[in-house]
Amino acid sequence: MATGTTRNKVALAPGHSLMDWIRLGNSGNDLTGVGGKILSVSKSELAKHNKRTDAWLAIRGTVYNVTQYMDFHPGGVDELVRGIGTDATKLFSEIHAWVNYESILQKCVVGRLVNEELFKLPDILKAATDVSENELNMDWFQQLGFLCFVFYTKTPYPEVSITLKQPNQFCFALNGKTRCITLHKNVNWPCVVKIVADIGKVQVKLIKKVLGLWPTFGTLTTTRNIQIDYWKCELLNSFDVTPNAKFLLFKYQQNLYNHVYPGRHIYIKANVNGQVVSRPYTPVWPLVETTEYGIISEDTLCLLVKSYPNGKLSRHLCSLNQGDLIEVSRPQGSFECWTSKTNLILLAAGTGITPMLPIIWNALHSSIKKYNITLLYFNKKETCIIWKKYLDQKSAAYSSRLTVHYILSEEENSMGDTKGHIDESVITKYFPTLNEESLNEHAVCVCGPPGFNKLCEKLIVQQGYKKDDYFVFG
Ligand code: HEM
């Protein structure tokens, strides 16, 4: 793995082991330095906290105060200092993506890293937009059979998880802040959730157990900050998709809806032969329309996993039996659908199709605009193509908006597309010729093995795409 540094663990001073750190976290000392409030932090605010004695850094959208952690960092103070005052996601992942920073730094959360634009707003609007405010911006309405809550988080891509703790106790965590409502009467699970990501509107529909109009929705009972790291999930069902890839359906043990945006991922953690292993996976929700797997309910976690001969976790997942447990983290990642673009070009190789499926689904069903999508899907043989039937059905149903080209490297291509690998000729053949204006309308996503990703990035940069116009899943 490229680290850009000589990787060496340092000898920590006595009293600075992980156990000591956990003890400090549980001591009641405020490690956040901001009194435990959840703040909205701009990049320029973050940059001010760049000293050893006042050190903040951001990882995957969350800002942490690491001042107290300095002497506990196994890589040493000087290494940790390299990340302070910045969004250290890339640096952190390059060195030790496997480190469970969320758990280690759970008592150090300062807030969320937010777009600079927010801070250019007049103060009056800024105050209304600040996620730290306690006030809840909420509407509700009902019909005989259901009631519906609408939350306005005022932050794009809000973090959303929803649980039904009791038939009449409904809790929702928005951007890390949890609130509970004791409902007037009982409701069923699962709920139906709709999120308008770019304006931060969240709508939750709860189905009443008994038909009737309620005089009130109930009472808002608690306001707490609960930082949950991992939830337990049990395997409901598994299906073979190709000879070495499976479609796995999991149910959260509690009644939980954990919203993962298209292109974002969760960490899966499992105990494999006595060792805890954790890796990122992109859920392939929502494939709710596919009938060959039965009806998939909204709160199901759907994973597509390829079993690699040396892949500890992938082999473990593919060998799970019904009822076996795994642990699943909160959503992570920084991918945002480009609402300013209209044409998406997706380059996927093998299981690199996983993040593309929700992106395609979302783009085809967007209520905001009509996206056009071109998918170039690279595989060795036709039998390796994952969900070809599904992709073909979608491209037939949306023929003017979704075009799929299958590119095979190891056999003749009966589908009429190129035989070969990703190279300049493939790009020239399938990419539209762009001028400066039409370039602004296009965005490219890439997902495959590291060599594929690197080559694609080189080729799309050659085509004139700028950093903001493409995203490489790695
Ligand atoms: C962003 C700037 C950071 C840099 C440049 C950095 C660098 C390093 C380096 C060079 C090592 C030694 C790697 C080895 O030889 O195994 C290390 C280890 C470690 N770092 Fe960091 N680190 C950073 C941030 C963090 C943060 C924020 C955390 C906290 C959660 C953290 C937790 C750890 C842990 C737990 C290890 C030991 C890993 C192991 O034993 O496998 N680091 N770090």
From TrEMBL:
Gene3D superfamilies: Cytochrome b5-like heme/steroid binding domain (3.10.120.10), Nucleotide-binding domain of ferredoxin-NADP reductase (FNR) module (3.40.50.80), Translation factors (2.40.30.10). One of its GO terms (molecular function) is metal ion binding. Residues 228-338 form the FAD-binding FR-type domain. GO terms for cellular component: endoplasmic reticulum. One of its GO terms (biological process) is superoxide metabolic process. CDD domains: cyt_b5_reduct_like. Residues 38-114 form the Cytochrome b5 heme-binding domain. Belongs to the flavoprotein pyridine nucleotide cytochrome reductase family. This is Cytochrome-b5 reductase.
